[in-house]
Amino acid sequence: MTCSEVRPFLGAFVDNELELRQALEIEAHVRTCASCRAEEAELRALSEAARAHLSRFLPAPALEARVRAALGSPPARRRAAWAWGAAAAAAAAALLLFFLARPAARSGDELAVIDAHSRALLAQHLTDVESSDQHTVKPWFQGKLPYGVPAASFPDAGFPLIGGRLDVLAGRPVAVLVYRRRNHTIDAFVWPEAEPRAVEASRERGYALLSWGQDGLGWWLCSDAAPDDLRALQALLAAAP
Amino acid sequence: VADRPPQASAAFTALIAPHLGAAYGLARWLVGNDADAEDVTQDACVRAFRHQADLRSAHARAWLLTIVRRCCYTLLAARRGGALAPLDEDEHPAPSDGPERAALRADDARLLNAAVAALPVEQREAFVLRELEGLSYKEIAEVAGVPLGTVMSRLARARAQLQRALRPAREEP
């Protein structure tokens, strides 16, 4: 195969979307052609960067209530129902909460953490300090918060630290460490908490949450990643020096 | 309370709620702002709900995304006052790639997002569905209603365009 025959298929090759025979032919060419090899590497880097940095817009929590309300109304009245706007949505949201409320009381922290996480995603403001280097992130928090913030990164385990930001939860400033897990962002909220707490996992509004307390710090992980991913990150954080 | 049919809630929970994030994410990338994306998502969910008989639940996500996409295109056409979408079938020259070519600035999140937002809408949807939603070419073809080969060429053109946009301009001597 020549370069001009290979180029149109390199993207599909990188995406593993070619039939085996075609993939083998391209692989053979790429092995001997430095220029196509460079192009392949660049396509892979582009794909990786897109997965890491492309904005993942999340719906505002109210949208779900809005849609539910719209589904409940007869189609013909849909526009009219719209004029009711906020009142209908609020009523539906209240109804939702009523039906979905689980026996276990949700702590104020849990809701505040979800709000802060979705706010950051919506505003596309995940990090105040963007760095995978703990020696950059850790000192950045110093002087801004009255407590020390550990900032370990776990790139080898698939949980690279991508930065940190300050947030305000229930009136107090808190540190948020931001980790990347494949396409997902995991926020790790951390603040002083004297009493150690056992690990507790929950799901709320489509987000997975995990919280625990150790060494004088309380942790909350919040993400749309899989709950297992949060457990894996928890284990890493708990064992970090 | 009573005028909300219970089956609406059940269908929503089973078919739509799990994919609301994907639906909104695609709409937001296609229409470009929160308010329109919310309206389009709602509209699509209502349509999806009315036509749920067409659905094989194994494909709920692709099915909902197909409807979201159609609603987005309707809105985009209305914005242009009914004018046809510009064709994105123009050929671009292959990027020059001598050994001296500069590395991509793909890790600049703002630059990358701006470059993707600037793609023609068909390329943008293919790229976003591939990289954010992890859809296969076959699924993208289903959502966009085009042959597999078209998906491949749209993605290739999207990437070529992004490579050009992300490569630092070479300083002229």
Shape of chain A: globular
Biggest interface, chains and residues, is: A-B, 47 and 52 residues
Q: How many E strands of chain A?
A: 7
Instruction: State the strand order across the main sheet of chain A.
Output: 1-2-3-4-7-6-5
Question: How much of the polypeptide of chain A forms β-strand, as a percent range?
Answer: 15-25%
N-to-C CA distance of chain B: 72 Å
* Number of contiguous helices of chain B: 8
Overall pLDDT confidence of chain B:
81
Biggest sheet layout of chain A: 7 strands, antiparallel
Oligomer: heterodimer
Low-confidence stretches of chain B: 87-96
Radius of gyration of chain A over all CA atoms, rounded: 23 Å
Number of helices of chain A: 9
How many strand units of chain B?
Answer: 0
**Fraction in helix of chain B:** 55-70%
Rg of chain B, Å, rounded = 19 Å
Spans of chain A with pLDDT under 50 lasting ≥5 residues? Answer: 73-84, 97-106
Explain how this protein is built.
The complex is a heterodimer of chains A (241) and B (173). Helix content of chain A is 48%, strand content 22%. With 241 residues, chain A is of the alpha+beta class. Chain A is globular. Chain B is mostly helical and 173 residues long. Chain B has helices at 6-16, 20-31, 34-50, 60-79, 109-117, 121-131, 137-144, 148-166. Chain B is elongated and about 60 Å long. The model of chain B is unreliable at 87-96 (pLDDT under 50). Classes of the chains: A alpha+beta (241), B mainly alpha (173).
Write the topology of this structure.
The complex is a heterodimer of chains A (241) and B (173).
Chain A (H helix, E strand, L loop, with lengths): L2 H12 L5 H13 L1 H20 L7 H12 L5 H7 L1 H15 L7 H15 L6 E2 L3 H8 L19 E9 L2 E10 L2 E9 L4 E8 L2 E8 L2 E7 L3 H13 L2
Antiparallel strand pairs in A: 1-2, 2-3, 3-4, 4-7, 5-6, 6-7
Helix pairs in contact in A: 1-2, 1-3, 2-3, 4-6
Chain B lengths: L5 H11 L3 H12 L2 H17 L9 H20 L29 H9 L3 H11 L5 H8 L3 H19 L7
Helix pairs in contact in B: 2-3, 2-4, 3-4, 4-7, 5-8, 6-8, 7-8
